[in-house]
Each structure stands twice: as structure tokens, then as C-alpha cells.
Specification:
It is built from 18 helices and no strands. Helix 3 packs antiparallel against helix 4. By secondary structure, the protein is an all-alpha fold. About 40% of the residues are buried. It has one domain: Hypothetical protein af1432, CATH 1.10.3210.
């Protein structure tokens, strides 16, 4: 079933354009071209070996940043289709949103931010924009991937005031208020749906969470009990999958219904009217927001602060801190770093470490301790 594009959706034919002008694509829209460039990027391929919750070598069955990004894209496209938004733009933002993430997930990001104190700090969200604007090296005519303004707007979902001042028109909404387009708002919520629900699945698979613990969470309990009632005696692995699937369905249905209601109430006629709104229009209902917060609080206490995860987190922070310190002391260890002026090295070093996969960072850290440590 083909859904017509809504008047308030992003229109690739009316894009605000690219930083470096290019001829129009012959057989694709501008947003399809963005998506394709991201899929073919080096940073996207590296996501397969970057942590979601569990460090890459912990097991083959857990989510990585790559599989997470694909799951965000799948949820985003489904909702975009129901709302009449541009599916290709939603997908492009979804698969690019974590391109700048460090190895070892948020632990790596926190450690690198601490290392960069006094040098502008480190934000993985801004780093994703830096990857697509500057660091990817594919095209002869320009640096980066030269994505459309709309995709770049969606990638940059958080930004400090200091950084917003330095990035021109793209940073204006962080200084003056206003919202991104609906596709960007949707990708943000699709990200939340994906990681909340799939972290439940990975936590159970790892044995760090139990069904008994999760049944304290209202949304999980309702979905779990409904599956048991409909399929008595079902095997546990199928039971877990059906429960998580039901939870995702509840989030998605609520998101579609509440967003349609808010769009109708706002009476927005185009994407400029969307951007002028005082608050996001892609939202959960109040009741679903509370259930989402309950699930987040549970995961924070039971999974992310689990002793085993905490141990991995502490080790990861140390790896990043050690690498940064060693490379600063011996810049010849990093290709091209010694040739830069001293004041340029911290940011280049942050780029280098942020681009590492988990296993490459661990291998490089092992080298610091010498051959005997291997």
C-alpha cells in the first residue's frame, strides 16, 4: 500500500541542499543518495564491532551498534510510512546517528570526553556529524559524505551551546529554540524504542536479568502475561521474543496515535511550521512516557549498573584513557599525528580513538604493555 507524502513531511525535491553543490541524482532522490552513501561508508561498517551494551568479544548473539542502527531504521521506516513522512530520510538519519560513537559504548564516550577536557570536550552526537562532514574519505570533490542539510539536521539531535555557535545554521535551533523536521524527531524516538526493548532481550540472554525481575515493570508484565495466556507452554526463548515484540508494538502504536493527534492539533502545513513549534510533535502519550521511564529506570539499575557490566565499563574507560595518554606522550604511534601542530593533536587523537572498534582498541591497548602482555 502506497502512502502519499504528507504536506508536513520533508520533501527531497525541496531539500536545503548540500554543503558542496552536486548534480541531481538520476535514479534516486536526494535522501536515498544520503542513505546509500552512509551504508557504503567506512564508519558504518565499523559499527559491527562496536559495543551496544556488551563489549564485542563477550558473545556473538548480542546487539552491536550496527544491528542496533538497523533496528532503529526498521522501526523508523514503519512509523514514517504510517505518518506519511519520508522513509528514506528517516532511514538515513537512523543508520547515521551512531557513526561517531566511540568503542565501548557510553563508557568510551565518557572517558574520551574526560580526556578532551580543556580541548573542547567530546560529544558522540557531534562526532557523528564530524564523520559525515569531514572524516570519511571517499569523494574527490569534497571531504566527508556531503549529505543533505535535512539528514545532517537529524544526526545532530543534541549539541552544547558552545558547539552550536561554531556550526552555523545547523546549530541555530539549539540557540534560538525550535524543532527539527518530523523525520529527525521520529528517528530519535525509534532509537529509544529499539534500545529499551532490545536491551531487555540481551540482558535476559546474558543471564543478567530474570523474568521475575522484569515482571516488576508494568509494560513487560502485561505483554508477558498476554503471551502466556495466548500460548500456554510456549518455549522460553519464543516467549521472550514474543514479549519484546509485543512491547515494541505497544510503543509504536502509541507513538503513531499520539503523533497524529498532535500534528492535527498543531495544524502544521509544512516542514517550516514543524520547525517553528515550541515542542516536538513526534511523542508518546503521557501514559506511555511513564511506562517508558519505568522501563528505563529498571534497566539503569538492574542491567547497566550490574556488577558484570560495571566491570566492563570500568575496564573500557581505562583502555580509552590509557590510549589517549600514551598517544599524547608518543604521537608517532598514530599515523600523521606527529606532523600536526601540538594544539591540533587532541582533536585528531579524539577522531582516531572514536573511530576504533572495540577489538582494535583492546589490541592497541595490549601493545602498550609490551609483547609479554599479549
Amino acid at each position: 500500500m502506497k502512502i502519499e507524502r504528507a504536506p508536513y513531511a520533508a520533501d527531497p525535491a525541496r531539500s536545503r541542499g548540500r554543503r558542496f553543490p552536486e548534480p541531481l541524482p538520476a535514479a534516486r532522490t536526494e535522501f536515498q543518495r544520503d542513505r546509500d552513501r552512509i551504508v557504503h561508508s567506512t564508519a558504518f561498517r565499523r559499527l559491527v564491532y562496536k559495543t551496544q551494551v556488551f563489549v564485542n568479544h563477550e558473545g556473538d548473539m548480542y546487539r552491536t551498534r550496527l544491528t542496533h542502527s538497523l533496528e532503529v531504521a526498521q522501526i523508523g521506516r514503519s512509523v514514517a510510512r504510517a505518518l506519511g513522512l519520508d522513509e528514506d530520510l528517516t532511514e538515513a538519519i537512523a543508520i547515521a546517528h551512531d557513526l561517531g560513537h566511540t568503542p565501548f559504548g557510553h563508557a568510551g564516550q565518557d572517558a574520551l570526553n574526560a580526556c578532551m577536557k580543556g580541548h573542547g570536550g567530546f560529544e558522540h552526537n557531534l562526532q557523528s556529524l564530524r564523520v559525515v562532514d569531514l572524516l570519511e574519505e571517499h569523494y574527490a570533490a569534497f571531504p566527508g559524505l556531503n549529505l543533505t542539510w535535512e539528514t545532517r539536521e537529524g544526526i545532530l539531535k543534541h549539541c552544547s551551546r558552545e558547539n552550536a555557535l561554531s556550526i552555523g545554521d545547523l546549530g541555530r535551533r539549539f540557540l534560538e529554540g525550535g524543532q527539527p523536521g518530523l523525520e529527525a524527531q521520529l528517528a530519535n524516538l525509534a532509537d529509544e524504542i529499539a534500545y529499551n526493548n532490545h536491551d531487555v532481550d540481551d540482558g535476559l540472554r546474558a543471564g543478567l536479568l530474570t523474568i521475575e525481575q522484569l515482571r516488576e515493570v508494568a509494560l513487560f508484565r502485561a505483554a508477558y502475561d498476554a503471551v502466556i495466556a495466548a500460548h500456554p507452554g510456549v518455549a522460553e526463548r519464543r516467549l521472550v521474543h514474543e514479549t519484546v515484540r509485543s512491547m515494541i508494538g505497544s510503543f509504536v502504536t502509541d507513538l503513531i496515535d499520539e503523533t497524529q493527534r498532535l500534528i492535527a492539533a498543531a495544524g502544521v502545513a509544512d516542514i517550516d511550521a514543524v520547525r517553528a513549534q515550541p515542542a516536538a510533535l513526534v511523542r508518546f502519550s503521557a501514559g506511555m512516557r511513564e511506562q517508558a521511564l519505568e522501563l528505563k529506570r529498571f534497566l539503569r539499575g538492574a542491567l547497566y549498573r550490574h556488577p558484570r557490566v560495571q566491570r566492563m565499563t570500568d575496564e573500557a574507560r581505562q583502555v580509552v584513557a590509557d590510549l589517549f595518554a600514551a598517544y599524547q606522550a608518543e604521537p608517532q604511534r598514530v599515523p600523521g599525528l606527529a606532523a600536526l601542530a601540538p594544539e591540533q593533536r587532541p582533536r585528531a587523537l579524539a577522531d582516531y580513538i572514536a573511530g576504533m572498534t572495540d577489538r582494535f582498541a583492546l589490541a592497541e591497548h595490549a601493545k602498550l604493555r609490551g609483547p609479554a602482555a599479549g
